[in-house]
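Archive maintenance. Older records in this collection stored only the sequence; we are now back-filling the structure field for every entry so that each record is complete. The fields below show one back-filled record exactly as it appears after the update. Entries are processed alphabetically, and beta-N-acetylhexosaminidase is next in the queue.

ARCHIVE ENTRY
Title: beta-N-acetylhexosaminidase
Organism field: Ginsengibacter hankyongi
Length field: 530
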Amino acid sequence: MKKYLIFYVQLIAAFFYVSSLYAQEISIIPKPVEMTIQTGCFVLSGKTCLVVDNGASKTADYLQSRIREGLGIVLKENSTVDCINKLILKIDKQTDIGKEGYKLLIDDNISIIASDNAGLFYGVQSLLQLMPPQVYGEHTSEIKSLELPKLRINDYPRFQYRGMMVDISRHFVSKKDLLKIIDMMAMHKLNVLHLHLTDDQGWRIEIKSYPKLTSVGSTGDFTNPDGPEKYFLSQDEIREIVAFAAYRHVMVIPEIEMPGHSHAASKAYPDFFDGGNAFNPANSGTFTFIGKIMDEMITLFPAPYFHLGGDEVAGATHWLEMPDVQNFMKARGYKTAGEVEAYFDRKVADMLISRGKQPIGWEEVVNSDVNRKTVIQWWLGHLMPPKNLNKALSNGNPVIMSPNWYVYLDYAQAPGEPGAPWNGNINGPNSLELIYNWEPLPDTLSAGKQVLVLGIEAPLWTEFIKSTSFRDYMIYPRMSALAEINWVPRGSKNLKDFHFRMQKQYMRYKAAGVNYRTPGWIGDIKYLTH
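Back-filled structure field:
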């Protein structure tokens, strides 16, 4: 009896030892909600059969291409001939798995089950992160087989909107670079790319109704405002970007900055502007101009949202000096430029709603009494208490969280490193740790208001970011922290565990071919030699 007892104790100890080893090796970002490690392993090889459910073919193609290009393993598709095990992708709309969630089971076979294609895709991302980092590279390995730990994962996102904004106006970002960013977002289970397409420094999207927006408005950038180079995305390039993103379950949301921050457009069509960088609300032709631009862009961007901008208008217009605006104000009983701004914001938001789009605006538009369907993007994190955020939640507006003091990716990552100097960076660098530790929903927020928070978006403004290498450096590894705070449940974060999992994530970055900041003295040297 004693011998049997000793045997079972040893068996149990061995189980926990093996489970511990696998747990140490497993690095999935964002961290799954529930994961149970089991004993044993699954051998993935060219004799593994990929069994694909109806409707899951695109996800299967993505998985097959990543394994083939990164590891050199080609799975048999929908065949049982000479197969020793199976990798099954299944969509089950009757399952209890929520939207974008998935179950991953690795036993004698691998099964990924989800109620929708997005969840299935995220299950594939978790599976890929159980493999060598080279799986995210191209033609980097020739592996005949690999062992994967047997486990069970039940996973789903905390927020429905998990985004990143890229400013391509101040310094242009090419189609090639945007596609790479989207690919990396997909790895992180981020699902929204917000493109800041226009600003004072350049108009970056082709509008066929108004060709001078690109022939004149796209000239130059923040560094060389007078050009002569023209930088913009053609409509064909936009379609390619949107399709590439949709394949990876990333929604692309366009932003046309209005009524301010519009000098590039005013150079091209001054009749619709105030002589500076703001639209002229008193000219009825202005809204015809805006409407035609919207109509073209809606055909390019199928996303349900459209960003109208709306920030930093106060004190930045010539409205009060313009006779037509003065008459416009008198006819409506307006006394201030703020009332004119509010009229413009309401008008543009209603134009978008009438076209079937849900408006998004920077937080200032909440003071314009815009339609309650308008999503308010909170960004003034340095202003406390956050009056506009509180007003939006009290009004019942949906909200996106983008506070500059926590998730602005153009802010420095460490003391002494370069970054945007906005608001003095009094809160310190927006480090990997600061972003990870930030809790977007304070305890004081009621349950009714918490449900209005769609998620978190990290903006990357590009006034001081010119090169692809430096842009990557500012995005990675902070994208990983952004992914975690958007995905993992409240109260389940662990910074030490996150740092441990990041060690393999850095290897994935290297395999994927992106530049990135590494922590500690190694990162400091990398920065100094950057």
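Update note: Confidence is low (pLDDT under 50) at residues 1-24. The longest helix spans residues 2-25.
Entry marked complete.
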